[in-house]
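Notebook, p. 212. Picked up where the previous page left off. The plan for this session was modest: take the two constructs that came back from the sequencing core last week, fold each one, and keep the raw output in the notebook itself so nobody has to go hunting through shared drives later. Recording the first one now, exactly as returned: residue sequence, then the structure token string.
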Amino acid sequence: MESMIGAAPGGQGSSGAHIKDADMQSFAKDVLDASMTVPVLVDFWAPWCGPCAQLTPALEKLVTEAKGAIKLVKINVDENQMLAQQLRIQSLPTVMAFKAGRPVDGFQGALPDSQLKQFITTLVGDLGPTPVEEILAAADQALAAGALEDAGGLYAAVLEADPENAKAYGKLALIQVRLGNLDDARETLAAVPQAHSNHADVSAARAALTLAEETATAGTPEPFLAVLAANPDDHQARYDLALALTKAGAFDDAADALLEIVRRDRAWNDDAARKQLVKMFEAFGHTSPFTLAARRKLSSLLFS
């Protein structure tokens, strides 16, 4: 291939230390020679190619984050038609991966970021978390620790860097619900891209918003506690207590109140207590510690 393409030095500018444009004359140096040290991706593109405009920035981002573990060379096929013919480029975008001076892998068309990262990982090994993934992990930790405002700021930062991140939309909206900022939660959920509208975290946030709206006028727990002290079998008072506790953020206590109704009268008010528990499970997510614990208690009551 080297004798076929030629080895004249050159180059047409750079988009970063590990990203550059190349042409027929510089291909051997920028791709073949460079791939003797690290893998080199060659992105064949054209100004008129819509998918190229999506793929190239995504490749540049991942190569930059790899910090020298891989390089990217961009070839404008309109300006290098002979090179494209020699390499049998038949559609755009096309990406070829070179190692040790030889092509070893490739693909055609624009791929999602997750597949691009996997493609690069197969060439260079695990790249570790991206900056967005690191922020997302920090946000998850803050949320788990109950630092809602800190977590919300981090999820918002994720969305600034990655406006397609469904998890960040869902978690941010959930935090806004828990902080009582229901209008903000509605705006966040309205901004979710249609492709991610059914993502688990988005669905959970939507359920949490619905739950918060339904309990907005629930009142405070004290009056219902007084009623129950006089009559523990007043299921409506216990149900209203569960709604008040939910509004106050005392979710475990709310679940216990609903479970107590199920224990005393499973079918009360057309199974209202169990149905309310299911709403809470949807709001917290089916794998959350809250849901797992409450669901186990509910199952033991229903199937005992």
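Okay, moving on. Second construct, recorded in the same format:
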Amino acid sequence: MAAEEVQKHIFISGKVQGVGFRAFIRREAAVLNLKGWAKNLVDGRVEVVLQGEKNKIAQMLEKLKEGPSYARVDNLKVNEEELGDYSDFKIKF
């Protein structure tokens, strides 16, 4: 039986821009075989869409709460979404 696929739309606040946070997300998404995208927002947050197996999304959310060592994550706002049509993980500009 195939694992359940889910999609999450996440807004991350804290010291998350200019510290390689999006590159960290892309690397971790590749390890977990997740699809979607990440981009910086003008208000200082990072916006992320993740799609993949439910258990791998849960693992990724734990990684996002910590972030890379040079970042500071203050808050994660996570929303469930309908599955989109993503073939890989991208950083949007």
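Notes on construct two before I forget. The beta strands are 5-15, 35-40, 46-53, 72-81, 89-91.
Flagging for discussion at group meeting.
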